[in-house]
Protein: tRNA-specific adenosine deaminase
Amino acid sequence: MMRHEDYMKIALREAHKALEGEEVPVGAVIVHEGQIIAKAHNQRELLRDPTAHAEMIAITQAASHLQSWRLENTVLYVTVEPCPMCAGAIVLARIPQVVFGAWDAKAGAAGSLMNILQDARLNHRVNIVSGVLERECGEILRDFFARLRGRDY
Structure:
């Protein structure tokens, strides 16, 4: 049986794919009853689509795989705390659990800036596990943005 860390390593591999494409390095994996049914990474630059976050792409893949918009009995693994858009999609998809690596103090919607995933006013609440491989997940982001800021424009 795989552990949270094992699935997060797969999400990190997806984040590295994003990095290779000069995208913000975020990766996501969705597991259904112990089987990976979706893997994705950020593709906003490639697709020229502001909604092409790793979580959004993975949710679409998982819904297609399950042939349902209700992603019950799934776990979403993502290398960084979901943003408000992704958190909204997670709630709408009825994903019961999100496991993430690094916190996002500027845009996190799972406890940092706000907590959409557990907002009692919404019709679905998500169990959150945070800090899985936090150092590795945070480093890839810090390195990317440090390199980006170092460029001459």
Remarks:
- The two ends are 48 Å apart (CA to CA).
